[in-house]
Amino acid sequence: MTTAMLTTAPITADWRDFLALTKPRVMTLVVFTGLCGLLAAPGHIHPVLAFTAILCIALGAGAAATLNQWYEVDVDAKMKRTANRPLPAGRMDREAALHFGVGLSFFSVILMGMATNWLAAAVLAVSILFYVFVYTIWLKPRTAQNIVIGGAAGAFPPVIGWAAVTGDVTALPIALFMLIFFWTPPHFWALALFVKTDYAAAGIPMLPVVSGEVATRRQIWFYTAIMAVAAMAPVLLHLTGLLYGTVALLGTLLFAVFAFQVYRRRENDPSKMGPERRLFKYSILYLFLLFGAVVVDRWLLA
């Protein structure tokens, strides 16, 4: 087979490539926090509609991830951890990804509105648009504070889940939004510290690339302190009870221990990033624990 024949052959992506575009591993946490918002909300929603609402949150998250990869294909091609994604690897053309992402976006929002209510659908639409236009297109390539502001995109799911049941947004879903918002910087910067060379190669101004590792470690510690306040806010505001307060207190103390270990390190060797990797992995478990505790606590108080 000649080179000319290879270059003109059509690109045929299979279902696994489309699934990969939705970032299913990242979606797990998004779906879980959305589910917790739905389960913690007062009132009743039919199980079929509840399932549909969570499905719409998953589809919306997948749509945002797809459009992110469609826009960043050249950037992903320059980074080792993303070079094998369907678009930079050449397993799918950009037009197919664009159509898939836009189609998922519209479908998820319209289905959410028809199955639950249009407030939940509107918040879902805002979350998709925020991730694509504010974070991906505007902030990420321009400022080292991209993940601070852009982190709001990942904080919407519990608000959407709550609104799907109640048709409104009250203090607790806002508190959960703020928890994820302030959790995102230490979570993501811990990752950025041990993949700094990837971001540098791609020209993305992540904080470790622009301001250095010492400043990043300081910011991780600073945002951990703010996150601790946000984590305790639900119980301090009497929105949750003792069970959540205990889990939040103990979980946040352990988070602070790991964050302090990252803060005090001055080792720049990428092969010796144990504390950073430990903080990143624990931060995911931390959010699962706190949101699970919110649901159990609300059920006990009901």
UniProtKB/TrEMBL annotation:
GO molecular function: protoheme IX farnesyltransferase activity
GO BP terms in the entry: heme O biosynthetic process
TM spans (from-to): 26-45, 51-71, 96-112, 118-138, 159-182, 220-237, 243-263, 284-301
Reaction catalyzed: heme b + (2E,6E)-farnesyl diphosphate + H2O = Fe(II)-heme o + diphosphate
UniProt membrane topology term: Multi-pass membrane protein
Record-listed E.C. numbers: 2.5.1.141
Record's keyword terms, sorted: Cell membrane, Heme biosynthesis, Membrane, Transferase, Transmembrane, Transmembrane helix
Pathway participation: Porphyrin-containing compound metabolism; heme O biosynthesis; heme O from protoheme: step 1/1
Gene Ontology CC, one term: plasma membrane
Protein's UniProt keywords contain Transmembrane helix: yes
Cell compartments where the protein resides: Cell membrane
Stated family: Belongs to the UbiA prenyltransferase family. Protoheme IX farnesyltransferase subfamily.
Extra facts: Carbon 2 of the heme B porphyrin ring is defined according to the Fischer nomenclature.
Function description: Converts heme B (protoheme IX) to heme O by substitution of the vinyl group on carbon 2 of heme B porphyrin ring with a hydroxyethyl farnesyl side group.
Protein name as it appears in the record: Protoheme IX farnesyltransferase
Source organism of the structure: Sphingobium xenophagum
Phylogenetic placement of the source organism: Bacteria, Pseudomonadati, Pseudomonadota, Alphaproteobacteria, Sphingomonadales
